[in-house]
Amino acid sequence: MLFIEWLQLVELTGFAPAERAAITAVHSDKYVATLEKLSAISADCGETRIVESAPTYLTGTTSRDASRAAGAVIALVDNVVAASRQREAEAAASSGSSSGSSSTPAGFAICRPPGHHSLPSGAMGFCIFGNVSIAARYAQRQHGLQRVLIFDWDVHHGNGTQDVFESDPDVLFISTHQANAYPGTGKAAEVGVGDGEGATINVPLPGGSGHEAILAAWEVVVEPAARRFKPDIILVSAGYDAHWADPLAGLQFCSATYHALGARVKALADELCGGRLVFLLEGGYDLDALGQSVANTFLGVLGEAPSDAFDRKLLGEEPLEKVQQVLLEAQRIHGL
User: Fold this and answer.
1) pLDDT digits (tens, 9 = 90+) for 75-86
2) Are 322 and 180 in contact (CB under 8 A)?
3) 3-state DSSP call for residue 218?
4) Residues involved in catalysis
5) Between β-strands 2-5 and 106-109, what pairing exists: parallel, antiparallel or unpaired?
């Protein structure tokens, strides 16, 4: 995993797997125990089993791997919070302000399995543990960062994350995703329930949407909602399967799109929450596109120019009129 500090990339190693209590803050004890048992059985017999119809596979190392992925995210939260508070202390000592400083830290957990489809009681969609959900609960309980913004830009709706926080007003979940794609959730009318009503914002983009569509969604929905919410930390479910080359869906992002998103979310974190920002890898299944897109996200966060020379004119025309209708509906529903 990578820690971005003082405009440098620093690799963090030696982190521990997530403690069981951090995982069971999101997932049921029964699910965690069953996963451990099945993984141990698979290790003994050397078999791989399908545990969900996506299909999601379980091997002899799955329980351990998923715990380490969650542990990576927790370690990044610890480091980002510690560094941001050090900046705040230094600024206070010098009677200055850390707001907007380009040196405020951010972290990126390059880990698999992904997590945003994982349900409280089961695996789903290649996902075992809900890494971003675990990180959000940990930030709240361990660091007192009560108001957590989760922005999910994966091409698929983060249904597992939504399920965990749908009744929690202190977690604002914003998902941009391809409409009517797997897993079939994420309609605009899904806004949360009970005390959490209004704290779930879904932006289902029509097929063929690309660079212009997602930046319009950022300007019209994501950024205004974040400013109104005033988060203490921002977590990003950074999926890269909305890339035009990815085989699993039908959006048209390119790696420069992720550069633009990385730069925008970093600037917002610097302004709103002391730079506290953690990215978590979700989907992305064309390895060349994935590598280019992750690298361009780093460049955006670091304030460097994008490395993508791809001509977006080679892609299909975006359905911007339909996109505008989606954004107007989101504005209406959420009073933005």
Assistant:
1) 999 999 998 888
2) no
3) helix
4) 117
5) antiparallel
